[in-house]
Amino acid sequence: MNTFDKIINKERKTNIHGKTIDNYILIEWIKWLSYEPNFEKKRIEYFDSKKISDLSYEELEEASKYSKNKVFARLIRKYINNECQNEDIIKIYNYFRNESLEKLMLSKLTKEELQYAKEKIIALKNNNPEQLSAKIKEQQQPEIYQKLSMVDSYILHVISNINDPKRKSNLNKKILK
Predict the structure, then answer these.
(1) CB under 8 Å to 28, separation ≥6 — which residues?
(2) Sign of CA pseudo-dihedral 159, 161, 165, 171
(3) Phi (first) and psi of residue 114, to 5 degrees
(4) DSSP notation for 16-30
C-alpha cells in the first residue's frame, strides 16, 4: 500500500504537535518535496560529481536544501505510516511552521509552467463558485491528486484559495504579478 492509499484510509484530519492539519496538505507536501524537475536533477548530479570541499558556500546551501527536501518527504511518510518518533513529529511541526509550500512549488516550476498556470488561474477565477468548489474537492481526492501534473497541482493549490475570502485578495495580487 503506497503513501497515498494510506492517507485515503486515514481520517481526513491529522494532529501534529497539537495542530490539526488536513491530510490533503500532507499529500501536497510529499508530492512537492519528492518532485525533482530536470533542472534540479542536473544540479544534484553536479553536486554528486564534486567533492564537498570543492563546493562554494552557496552550492553547499543549495545541495543541503535538496537533501532536506528528501529527508522531510521521508519523515512525513513515516508519520503517515505511524512510524514517527516524537522528535520526528516535532521536526515536521517546526518544518511546517517555518517553510512555505507555495515557495517550494514556485522553486520547482519553470517560467513557462508558471505562465501557463497564471493563464489557467485567471480563466478559472471567473468560473461559477459552486462549480469551482466542486472541481477543487474532486481534484483534492488523493487518488486523483496524485495523478495531476505538477503544474496542475500548483493550479489546484492556488485556486483552492479563491473561495476563501481571507485569501482571495492575496490571490488577486499574485495574479497581477
Answers:
(1) 101, 145, 153, 157
(2) negative
(3) -65, -35
(4) ETTEEEEHHHHHHHH
Per-residue pLDDT 10s for the chain (177 aa) are 444 444 434 444 555 544 445 678 888 999 999 999 999 999 999 999 999 999 999 999 999 999 999 999 999 999 888 888 889 988 988 898 899 999 999 999 999 999 999 999 999 888 888 888 899 989 998 889 989 999 999 999 999 887 565 555 555 555 545
**CA–CA gap between residue 2 and residue 147 (Å, rounded):** 14
What is the Cβ-side half-sphere exposure of residue 48, based on CA atoms within 13 angstroms? 8
Q: Please answer whether residues 94 and 132 qualify as being in contact, where contact means their C-beta atoms are separated by less than 8 angstroms.
A: no
DSSP 135: H
Tell me the backbone φ, ψ of residue 130, rounded to 5 degrees: -70, -40
The domain limits of the chain are 1-107, 109-177
Contact present, 27 and 148 (Cβ < 8 Å): no
CA dist., res. 149 & res. 6, Å (int):
21
